[in-house]
Amino acid sequence: MLWLTKDDRRDIERELHDPTWRARLQRVQEIVEGEFEGFRDHAETLVIRTIIPRIQIKGLPSVLNRIKNQKSQGLTQYSVADVEDLVGIKILCPYPSDVTDVIGWLRTHRKFRVSPESLDAARREKKEGYRGYHFSVQLNDLLLVDNEDLMGIRCEVQVKTMLEEAWDAKTHELTYRREEQVHPTLLKEMRTISDELAILDAKTEILKNLILDKETQEHQRKEAVVAVYLRESMPEVIEIISQIPNGEELVKGNFTSTNVLSLVPVIQQYREQRKLSKAWCRLAALVGLFAKGRHLDVWALDACEELIRQDADDPRSYLTKSSICWALDRIDDALELAEVAIKKAESRGDQNVLVEAKSSFAYWVAEKVWNQAEIEPALVELAKAYVNDALQIRPGDPGDSDTKGFLLITTGSTEDGIEAGRKLIREAQSKAGPEQERIATAFFRRHETIALLRLAKLSEK
C-alpha cells in the first residue's frame, strides 16, 4: 500500500519550498543559535567549543521518507510541520561533562520548549558507532513576543562531544541512507573504533579535571589579590558600605556572589546623581568580580566610562579603569588605558600619576605574559623601562619593586632570572608599612607561587 500518492508528494514539495515557510524556518534556527551563543558567552568555562548551524533546509527526499515512515506507523496526520529536523544546529563540546552541562541548561531554559523530556529518549546510538543527543526545540516565553508567527516551528539541536562529531564526519557519507548496504563486518569494525573513542572521551575527563583544578587555583589566588587590592584602595566608602544589608561582612572582606549584589543599588544611586568617584568604581569592580554570569563586570566598566566623562583629561580616571580591567581579566584593555594615562599625565606634568601609570603598565605586561605564556620582546622591554623609570623616581618603593620582581618572574628564561625576581618581591614585602601589609602579603604570596611554578617547569626541561 502506498502511503504517499503523487498528489501528496506534490503538495509536500510545494509546502517545503514555500518561500515564506522557509524564511520562518531559518528565523527559528537563527534565534535558537543566538540563545546558545549567549549561553556560551556567559558560561564561566568553555563548555561549548563550536556551534554549527545547518546550512540548508532538509531536502525533499528525506522529508518524503520521514513522512512516509511516520504515516506507515499509524501517524496519519503527520505533515511537513511535524518534521523535527528541517533546520537544526550542532553543539560540539570538548568533554562529556560539558555535554551534560549544556543539556542541563537547554532543558531548563525558559525561552525554549524542549522534547523529549528524558535523556534516554534523546540519546542516539547506531550500530555503526554514531553517538549524540537529539532534541526538538520550539520557541517559548519572551522569544515569541515579537515572533508569534514562529510558534510551533521546530529546530533540531544535536549535542555531542567533538570526538563523537569527528566520528560522525568520517562515517556519515558511508552510512547515511544506505546502512543496509554496509557489510556487517565493516559495521562491527566501525562500532569497535567508535567504542574506543567513547573510552577516550571518558579518559579526557581526567585531563579536564586536572586542567580546571590548576586554573581554579590560579583564579582563586588572583581573585584574593584583586579583592584585597580593590578593598584597600577605597577607604572613603567603607563607612557607607557598613550601613547596607550584609555591610558588616563586606567591610570585613567576606565577598560572595550573592552578598555583593546589595552594593548594586547603592552604587547605582551615585551614578544617577553623577557623584561617581574612583572608589565607587572600584567597588563596582568588586561586584563584577564576584557576581559571575550577571553582566555586572560590563556594568562596572560602564561606571568607569562615566567617571572618565566627568573629566576626560584626568589621567587618574583612565588609570582607575585600567586597574579595573586588570581585575576583571581584560589585560589588553588595561594596557591600552595605562598608555592613555601615561600620555595625559605627561601632558599635564603630573609626575605622581605618571609613575603610577608606568608601574601599572609594567605589572599588566607581567600579567599578560603569565596568562598567555607568550613574550612580546618589545612590550617586555618597554615594561622594564617603565618600571625602572618608576624606581628612579621612587627608589626602593615596595610596590614598584614588587612589580619589577613579578616581571622578572614571568619573563625570566633562566633560574637565575626568576630567582632575581623572587629576591625583589621578598624585599618589597619586608619594606611594606603597616598600612600596606595586607595587600603586600597577598601580592607576595601569589607572585611567590608563580615563581615556584615557573622554576618547577624549568627543571622539567
Mind describing the biggest β-sheet? 6 strands, mixed
General shape? elongated
Order of helices and strands: HHEHEHEHEEEHHHHHHHHHHHHHH
Topology-level CATH name of the domain at 6-208: Beta Polymerase, domain 2
What is the rounded Rg? 29 Å
The overall average pLDDT, rounded, is 85
Segments where pLDDT lies below 50 for 5+ residues?
A: none
Name of the level-1 CATH class of the domain at 6-208: Alpha Beta
Strand content range: 5-15%
Number of helices: 19
User: How many E strands?
Assistant: 6
Residues in helices, as a percent range: 55-70%
Straight-line N-to-C gap: 73 Å
Explain this structure.
- The protein is α+β, with helices and mostly antiparallel strands and 461 residues long.
- It has a domain at 6-208: Beta Polymerase, domain 2 (2-Layer Sandwich), CATH 3.30.460.
- It has helices at residues 6-16, 19-42, 60-72, 96-108, 119-122, 162-175, 184-232, 238-241, 247-251, 264-272, 278-290, 296-310, 315-327, 331-348, 351-372, 377-393, 398-411, 415-431, 437-460, and strands at residues 50-53, 88-93, 112-115, 123-125, 131-139, 155-161.
- Strands 1, 2, 3, 4, 5 and 6 form a six-stranded mixed β-sheet that branches.
- The mean pLDDT is 85.
Q: TL;DR of this structure?
A:
The chain is α+β, with helices and mostly antiparallel strands.
Write the layout of secondary structure elements.
Elements (H helix, E strand, L loop, with lengths): L5 H11 L2 H24 L7 E4 L6 H13 L15 E6 L2 H13 L3 E4 L3 H4 E3 L5 E9 L15 E7 H14 L8 H49 L5 H4 L5 H5 L12 H9 L5 H13 L5 H15 L4 H13 L3 H18 L2 H22 L4 H17 L4 H14 L3 H17 L5 H24 L1
Parallel strand pairs: 2-6
Antiparallel strand pairs: 1-2, 3-5, 4-5, 5-6
Helix pairs in contact: 6-7, 7-11, 7-19, 11-12, 11-13, 12-13, 13-14, 13-15, 14-15, 15-16, 15-17, 16-17, 17-18, 17-19, 18-19
